Amino acid sequence: MEDTVALFVEDARAVPIEDAAKRLALKFSGNRHEHPQPCPHCGGTDTFAFNTAKNKWNCRAGGIGGNDAIGMAAHCNGLDLHAKQGLLEACSIVLDREIPDEGERESEEQRAARRRRLEQRRLQNEADAAARARHQESYREKERNRARGVYGGLAALGMASLGHGRAYLERRCAGYPDATWLRVGADVPYWHGQDERGNPVALFSGPAMVAPFIGPDLLLIGCHITWIDLERAPKYRPLLYGLTKQGAAARLAHWAFGDSPPIPEHLSAGLYEHLPSKKMRGSKKGGLIPIAGQSEACRWVGGEGIENAVAFGVWENWRDDTFYFAAGDLGNLAGPADPASRFAHPTLKRPDAKGVIRPVMIAGSKPKPDQATDDVMWVAGHVDELVLLADGDSERVMTASAMARARARHARRGRSIPIAWPRPGYDFAAMAAEAAKRAA
After folding, report:
1. Among the three residues 52, 85, 117, which one is the final residue of a domain in this structure?
2. 81 pLDDT exceeds 50?
């Protein structure tokens, strides 16, 4: 690769994800840092997201993500970064500049000056990356402290006078654990957006189940919050909406909890948006959610989603020899994939940015080489049986690949790692709820 092209690539590496998202015409959601939306490449409803505070992006459908704008542009446009033309096309999109023409000659003086510029650019990129890392660590520590504040003052779910948490898990999972990991609060604030002075706004405050994220030292690094509405079957979670930037520009009123849902035309126009009824505070990186039992157990059972792990524990009658847990998401369970292991979905196809129908690319079953230990949830070294719970109502090929990658990532000599699958189209919580309804 010639120096001019190398400088072109280094310029692209310096572009923040926020700037690249604007050039890619991605959707910005209100005043939040996290911007979920359909993946331009894989489709879905909220499968893709970028975070302007953490300078990261992620596609759950494709099982891929990263912390640079080039990778995001390549994924959104179906470009192969392993090919030189794909890399340069992605850089061109990020920079909004033409790919350099290497046909021109340059003098020795020009070459020396260009190499100096390239070295300066590299040094600046390294300094900017270090500054972003310091900022992100400060942001994470503030979030961890907020998570500790949310979790610390709540009562254990099984002993709390407020019965919402027990009722929620009874209805979703046909039971709940007799353990103190899960907690419940009567008035947990749901923060969304900012007021005119830039202060965070509590959209509402209501009952919620709160679970900790813990690291290998068993210390809390974050928390997972599930707001509860026992009047809204079958998920029993509140229906929430937020005003977007476009809605604010149109001078629409902020949606308040208890209001009627926005009209469909406003939702389709992006003036209001659906908000998740689950949130994470603090950090989940390298952590997991404990549900029942003790981590000293040699048998661990868990997967994506608290409800799935609870339903499986209820079905097993909460075995004394088992530690039950949940991962924050599928990526936290399986870790990143080796880019070389990506493969085309056997049936799913999507149009790319140019309208060409292409197969949806799936993250492969081979873990990314040389991963950091906290790129995936931790599993204690003494565990000799790790039962991984799959989700049967997610896309089957992508989920199967991720579960195989999780098995490979957590494999150790002498460790058995079976994968338990629910019925197609179900998760274990849905199966438990259906069985409980039939038995009633």
Report:
1. 117
2. yes
